[in-house]
What we know:
Helix content is 18%, strand content 35%. The chain is of the alpha+beta class.
Amino acid sequence: MPDLDIVMYWCCESVIYDEQEIPSSTAGTYKVRWVKAPDEHDYSMWWHCYCKRFRYFHQCPHVEQAKKRHCGWDQFFNGGEPIKDENGERHCPRCNGPVTAQRYGV
């Protein structure tokens, strides 16, 4: 079996962590987060909201709104290059937010 090559790609920091304030129709706003699963051996990401509906049903309209706003750009999956500003710092081509380097085995 051949060895994997480790390749560096850029991704928007929203791929790793995202927190949004979503307005509620009844109680002001709720924080919705895109976070790593709580199990230390599980590397998947999932949405979490602090409203009662999400607590009982694991879905709510706040999460659906957050998903629409979530950037999630990843060079490995979406292609493209990060944008460089006049200081040479890289930014996400979709949302102009910060980017971070990720390693992938190919």
